[in-house]
Amino acid sequence: MSALPPNVRHGAEAVAEAAERRWAIIVAVIIALLIGMMIVTGLHWAAMPPSRVETVDVTTLHIDGEFVESNLGTALENDGEVIVRVLAQQYSFQPQCLVVPADMPVTFRGTSSDAIHGFSVDSSNANTMLIPGFIATFTTTFPRTGEHLMPCHEYCGTGHEAMWARVQVIPQQEFLARTRTEKRLSCVRS
Fold first, then answer.
1. CA nearest 86: which of 74, 77, 94?
2. How many CA atoms lie within 13 A of 31 on its CB side?
3. How far is residue 9 from each of residues 13, 14, 19, measured CA to CA in Å?
4. What ranges make up the beta strands (E) of the chain?
5. pTM above the 0.70 mark?
6. Span 132-153, pLDDT tens digits
């Protein structure tokens, strides 16, 4: 038997029931808020699609347009913008090695020809998904020179673990000097 008198035991049970009821209400409110947020954001995105959605025809990637082989790699555009064009395909990135300048904004433009891929460049905030039919674009700056790995971070099949590239960050002056003699920069050895 309990050591507490019956009237004390019933009082403790009432306090415990009240506390449990409060927590149940709090949890129900949190769940309702989360569901409400999902509905509102779902309706908002359906009515307002993301801006800058660019598409590309995957059947002609290698034949025509921005992602033909001769246009891949790093280039200094006429307006001074540094553009890196990357094509992902099972199980490789084209080009396999990219050259970018330190301390300059670098715009990555990439797509995939076959499956969903993605990449992240270690020691940086460069990270994106490459989806067939869409062009991923983002701009970043690399503060320090050096070589970084760029692995595929979306599982794309049995050869996924071998899908990676390298990014060489070189001093800004060296980069600008190389762009005077080379149209597309890459560190792939011929």
1. 94
2. 6
3. 6, 9, 16
4. 54-55, 73-76, 82-89, 92-94, 97-101, 105-112, 117-120, 127-130, 134-141, 146-151, 164-170
5. yes
6. 999 999 999 999 999 999 999 9
